[in-house]
Amino acid sequence: MSSVRSSSGRPARRLKNEINVVPYIDVMLVLLIIFMVTAPLITPGVVELPSVGQAANVPATPIEVQITEDGKISWRKREAGATNIPVERSALAQTILAELKPDQPVVIAADGKVPYESVMKVMDDLRKNGVTKLGLLVDQKSEAAPAPNASPKGAPNRNTPPKK
Asked: Using an 8 Å Cβ cutoff, are 65 and 92 in contact?
């Protein structure tokens, strides 16, 4: 067999059907080094979540909407001797609006095991029907916000006399 010769007398180059990936690997390694160096320098966004210890005090007489673990909804005025009145979710907004006075807040007290979606649906229903002052009732624990002169658990407090 004779080989194909070009006009200059040298054998003709055959075309390769392969890709040389070495330059791509070099570029990938350079980009990897750049990302490894710059990633620790990027500060993530800091989100200030509300703390139970910093929750505002509830006004004197809000209307409280309670959602129990089994999904039953009731409401009451937060006054001494007030009892919970059961109500269907479809009629909740109209019932609350009939009892609501101007500038009176409504707080939602949901059991800890109630799905978040259920609480948000009740909030959405109330907002759509014109309840503007709406909040969530939380259980404030004394350990969540210790007094400024309180000491950690187990450590003696300087302001109290030692036990004998």
From this structure: yes
